[in-house]
Amino acid sequence: MSREQMRILGIPVDRLDMEGALARFESFLNGEDCRIIVTPNSEIVLNATKDPGLAEIIERADMVIPDGIGLVHASKIIGKPLKERVTGVDFSYAALGLLAERGGSAYFLGAKPGIAEKAAEKLCGQLPGLVCAGCRDGYFKPEQEEEIAEEIRSSGADFLLVALGSPKQERFMYAHRESLGVKAAIGVGGCFDVWSGTLERAPEFYRDHGLEWLFRLKQEPKRIGRTAALPLFLIKVLLHGRKDGDK
């Protein structure tokens, strides 16, 4: 499939809407290799500008979904507006719906003990046809990664959802992409907490106005230090945007 990208602070982002993202995901399911999907927000893009390893993973990813509202604002500053914001949680749920229609299976890796299982149980109840190939929490040591990758391969899963937080989830997917045995893998951050009911998702008003960060901050005040990422990101885009827009 053809692929159109733009760069924000030098980091590539796919110019696609939900329909296009799902069409590409379906093409991944029809392929043979493991395709990597990343869902950057402002914080992840900022981190990638300082982390060459993370930047390379995003550069080589098979789909880079514009998750954060900051990326949409940045694209307008640059003069190349993105088609729409495609949130990781909405895309992942819709992708699981497509998988369910095919009777496909998903493996859920990450979050605190028991959360992946709760998320999988609720999703399988909401999406008839979806098969849970396996679950594992995100509390493991680096030396256990190969064992976990083999466990995922042995499960026969078609789709891997990794909720380890960034950049750990991106590093895990990329490092083990050739041994996972899945058709696609995506980093989903805190999605398991939302799907399991552990955390409440922001109401529609907050989502429509790009204020999910504010709702999340109300739920988890300890995240206050991370809220500085969005204004810092937009300031950097204002200073750097002309260079991106000329590419």
CATH topology category name: Rossmann fold
Structural classification: alpha/beta
Number of domains: 1
| Strand content range | 5-15%
Shape: globular
Largest sheet descriptor: 6 strands, parallel
* Nearest-integer average pLDDT: 90
* Number of helices, where a helix is a run of at least 4 consecutive DSSP H or I residues: 12
Order of helices and strands: EEHEHHEHHEHEHEHEHHHH
Helix content estimate: 40-55%
Record field, number of beta strands = 8
Low-confidence spans = none
Which CATH class?
Alpha Beta
- Rg over C-alpha atoms, rounded to the nearest angstrom: 17 Å
Distance between the termini: 22 Å
The side-by-side strand order for the widest beta sheet comes to 4-3-8-7-5-6
CATH architecture: 3-Layer(aba) Sandwich
| CATH homologous superfamily assignment | AF0625-like
Please give a structural write-up:
With 247 residues, this protein is of the alpha/beta class. The protein has a six-stranded parallel beta sheet with strand order 4-3-8-7-5-6, sandwiched between helices. It has a two-stranded antiparallel sheet with strand order 1-2. The model has no long low-confidence stretch (mean pLDDT 90). α1 crosses α5 (88-101), α2 packs across α12 (229-245) and α4 (69-78) packs parallel to α12. The protein has one domain: AF0625-like (Rossmann fold, 3-Layer(aba) Sandwich), CATH 3.40.50.10700. It is built from twelve helices and eight strands. The protein has helices spanning 18-29, 42-50, 52-60, 69-78, 88-101, 115-126, 145-155, 168-175, 191-196, 204-208, 212-219, 229-245, and strands spanning 5-8, 11-14, 35-38, 63-64, 105-110, 131-136, 159-163, 184-187.
